[in-house]
Design goal:
about 240 residues, mainly alpha, Arc Repressor Mutant, subunit A, two-stranded antiparallel sheet, about 45% helix, elongated
Length: about 240
């Protein structure tokens, strides 16, 4: 009697909640002795098959079956000129985006990404560019740009503020520089030290240098590698012959 009732209930179930309730009643009846092991096994297999069929018939409402999201699919961005992107990446990486002791932690592409972030922070105080714009300006791919920012955040150089929105597109993250060394490097701008020497501002007189020592010429016109001009020796008068004396 109980076996027939459970079989009819399983065949008439239409939702997963009903299947869960029938599964609970099935094993309660087995525990109470209303069902034998063989009968319980048959009903459990049938219940599992009906549950799989119900799950396959479920379709999300408001979203086409071929799409898994309300938002349009992300297109993979490729540089139209990879040679130009590579040259731009190398130029940005060699322009000194970070102090040397910090730059040694990053690869060429990552330094190019941090250069874009540093320029935005210097101009606006915070970098609010989307990751695709940062990657395009740096001449790298999207994943490399994301990895560079994660590595910088892990080293305590920047903070990344996520701006998520429920039910609509998220806003670009806000990246802020919190490293004091990097902040001072950005503030110095064109007077950054390269290789132990301070680069003077444009328009200022630059002393002549030789090796590592600065040389300032004096008013006497003495230059390195040249000796003082000597006066020509006075010509001695020709010796008169004894015959004219």
């Amino acid at each position: 009697m109980f076996h027939a009732a459970m079989q009819a209930a399983i065949e008439g179930a239409r939702t997963l909640a009903q299947m869960d309730e029938l599964s609970r009643q099935l094993w309660q009846g087995h525990g109470a002795g209303a069902l034998g092991d063989h009968e319980a096994q048959i009903l459990a297999e049938r219940l599992h098959g009906r549950r799989s069929a119900i799950r396959e018939g479920i379709r999300p409402t408001g979203i086409p079956a071929v799409r898994s999201s309300l938002f349009p699919p992300r297109r993979s961005l490729r540089s139209p000129d990879r040679t130009a992107s590579l040259e731009r990446r190398r130029l940005l990486a060699c322009s000194g985006p970070l102090p040397p002791q910090l730059a040694a932690r990053f690869t060429e592409g990552q330094r190019a990404v941090l250069r874009i972030v540093g320029d935005e922070v210097a101009a606006k105080g915070v970098c609010g560019l989307c990751i695709d714009a940062i990657a395009a300006r740096a001449g790298v791919c999207r994943r490399l740009a994301q990895g560079a920012l994660r590595l910088a955040a892990g080293d305590g150089l920047v903070t990344i503020e996520e701006r998520r929105h429920q039910g609509r597109k998220n806003s670009p993250n806000l990246v802020r520089v919190i490293s004091r060394e990097w902040q001072a490097w950005i503030r110095r701008g064109g007077t950054q030290k390269r290789g132990g020497f301070a680069l003077p501002a444009e328009g200022t007189a630059q002393p002549k240098t030789l090796g590592c020592k600065a040389l300032r010429p004096t008013d006497k016109g003495i230059t390195l590698g040249m000796s003082l001009p000597t006066e020509p020796a006075k010509k001695l008068p020709e010796r008169q012959s004894l015959a004219h004396r």
